[in-house]
Every structure is written in C-alpha cells, then in structure tokens.
Amino acid sequence: MKIYRSEDEREMGMIAADLVAAQLRVKPNSLLGLATGSTPVGMYEALAELCQAGKTDFSAAKTVNLDEYVSLSPENEQSYRYFMQKHLFERVNILPRNTFVPDGTADPAVACKRYDELLDSLGRIDLQVLGIGRNGHIGFNEPSDDFPCDTHVVELSESTIEANARFFASKAEVPRRAVTMGIRPILYARTVMLLVCGEEKAEIVKRAFTGPVTPRVPASILQLHPNFLLVGDRAALSLLDGSMVC
Ligand code: F6R
C-alpha cells in the first residue's frame, strides 16, 4: 500500500487526477474503473480541466462504473449515469460508446449478468478508482459474511441510505437497492486507487487498512492488493501511523 496525503480535499482531487492522467499517458487505451459520490468530484473537475487544456486525452479510454441504483434511469438526476455524464463524460473527449454504467432500469438479475459479461469482454481494469463508505463499503459491497465476487444486487444498509440521503429530496426517496460490481474485478485491477477525505472517515480508514481483512469491512481486502494507492486528505488519514504515509 502506498499512501499519498494531501492538505485538503482540493489537493486530493488534483493528486488523483494527475495519477489518472499518468495512467492515460502510459496507456492511452486504459480501462478505468470509476466511482461516484462526493469524494471523486474534485478529481473529475481536475481531469476535465486537464483535458480541456490538452494535457490528458480520453479518446482511446474506456470506463466501467462500479454501481447504479435499482430503478433509476439515466435521465434521473440522482442516477449514477447522470452523475458521470455531468461530472466527467460530457466534459472530456471520451466516446460515449466507451462508457459503461450498470443498467438501473433493467430487471436487476439481468443487469448483473449483463454487466459481468461486459466486464469479461473488456478484460482487466487498468486503474480502479474507489471511495469508501463510513461502514467500509466499496462500490456498494456492504459489510457482510463474505466477499461477493460478481456483480450482484444489494439491499443498501441503513447507514448508506442515511449517508446518501443528502443527494435526494428526502431519505424516503433513496432507492433501497443497487446493482454493484463485486470484489473480483476490483481486486483483479492492475492498480487500485482509493480516495478519501474528511475527519468522519478517519476511523474507518484506520479499521480498513490497519485492522484485520474481513468482509465486515469490505475495503480491508485492499490490503491484499499488490498495487494499492490510498489518496487521502490530512483529516481522513489522521488516525494512521505517520510512518505509513509517504
Ligand atoms: C459510489 C461508490 C461508493 C462511494 C462511497 C463514498 O459509486 O462506489 O462506494 O464511493 O459511498 O461516498 P462519498 O464519496 O459520497 O462519501
């Protein structure tokens, strides 16, 4: 595990964007695994700026997103497809046909099967970007008794519903289910980069990356990844031993 510490959220976004841009320079046709949520917004903003300045190029890249709410269509402003269009895809030179997000409107079991077939056809993810939930979830792989390998339907935990209610008019509007990529393609990615910011994530960062590897804290499995980058701000990394940070 390699840890990059930024002073604040803004700098975290810029460090992460530079790492994605470096990946695209080394391999322009990279397959990028992408996340939604508040944490990567600054990274997407910085990537859009780099692309508009001609300093990075998405024209040969492909992307696969981690997850989507069951029942939300791409036109729904709370859907993850909508989020990606707004924060990244419409602002960089990626080809729309090269961007993939699970289908929230299909029968969930069918959407999962199709997404796994798609992932198989695309091959290994070059760089997987992740956030982390306050309960340690990655994608929507919630704490459970095992690490689910494949794309699956999840019942969102109460803490995730509460955390995500801020994006909806009310908590009642948050969909209770989501389709999420499983752990296998995440762990199989050549590089995994997890972004985290804010004091409220400090405790889970400590548990996930210095505690035991357990499906009760899904992100803890990243301790087993040979090329895992943790990019966090000072507050989120505050409970880690200083010697771990480079
Ligand atoms: C969303 C996703 C989630 C989020 C996590 C943190 O695609 O994968 O695991 O990364 O819920 O969300 P924020 O960044 O909003 O705290």
The secondary-structure class comes to alpha/beta
Q: Can you list the strand order of the major beta sheet?
A: 1-10-9-6-2-3-5
Radius of gyration: 17 Å
Query: What series of H and E elements makes up the topology?
Result: EHEHEEHEHEEHEHEHE
Please give the number of β-strands.
10
Helix content: 25-40%
Low-confidence stretches: none
Strand fraction band? 15-25%
What general outline do the C-alpha atoms trace?
Answer: globular
Query: What ligand molecules are bound, each kind once?
Result: fructose -6-phosphate
Q: Describe the biggest sheet?
A: 7 strands, parallel
Give a quick set of tags describing it.
three-stranded antiparallel beta sheet, binds fructose -6-phosphate, 7 helices, 246 residues, 30% helix, alpha/beta
How is this structure best described in words?
The structure is a single chain. This protein is of the alpha/beta class and 246 residues long. It has helices spanning 9-26, 41-52, 80-87, 108-122, 158-164, 183-188, 202-210, and strands spanning 2-6, 31-34, 62-65, 67-69, 99-100, 127-130, 152-155, 177-180, 191-196, 228-233. It has 7 helices and 10 strands. The protein has a 7-stranded parallel β-sheet with strand order 1-10-9-6-2-3-5, covered by helices on one side. A 3-stranded antiparallel β-sheet has the order 4-8-7, covered by helices on one side. Strand 2 (31-34), helix 2 (41-52) and strand 3 (62-65) form a beta-alpha-beta unit. It is globular. The model has no long low-confidence stretch (mean pLDDT 97). The protein binds fructose -6-phosphate. Fructose -6-phosphate binds next to loops.
